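User: Can you predict the 3D structure for this chain?
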Amino acid sequence: MIDQRGRSWLMKHVVSPIGKVLVRLRVTASMVTMLGLVVTVAGSVILANGHTVTGALVIGLGGAIDGVDGTVARMTGTASSRGAFLDTISDRVGELAMFSGVAWLVAGDSLLVVLTVISLGNSMLIPYIRSRAEAEGLDGMGGLMGRAERIILFCILILPVGLGWYGAEIMLWPMVALTSITVGQRFAKAWSGLK
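Assistant: Here is the predicted structure, written as structure tokens:
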């Protein structure tokens, strides 16, 4: 997970000021969630069409926008189960779009398609294990690759592909390895807490 000091700095100096502006503009947390999803899907379509650098930047922007919705909800006192549910579903749809864009991009290479499917599967398993653990009253957090880390890794490592430096495997192999480790970490943590 991203270092807590770095996360605290980002919250104080970046996310909170943006949240305050959005609150003044009467933008709701759900509007921010949906905007983040729309931007992520748009970036995924751009990526799928071979504009890898632009696609990665737009996907990164979508992830950044989505990171503000919780702050807006807290500032306006509108945090709710419904909002959290919408945020969780939009996060999964966004990741589905990202990896679908990559699958389309690498469709001619069977190995890369398989790596994309594994990356997507792991990205779905990580929050699923958390939700199942929390349903049992356990702490489901932890591991190397939370959603923010997956988006950062995805966007940074897909950029060289668009610049013609490497193929998509430069992003896919580390994504498979690190998300697999995270699935194992969360599974082991939850398993050890179950009776």
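Residues 4-193 form a domain with the Four Helix Bundle (Hemerythrin (Met), subunit A) fold (CATH 1.20.120.1760). The helical segments are 4-24, 29-48, 52-66, 69-76, 81-105, 110-135, 147-162, 169-193.
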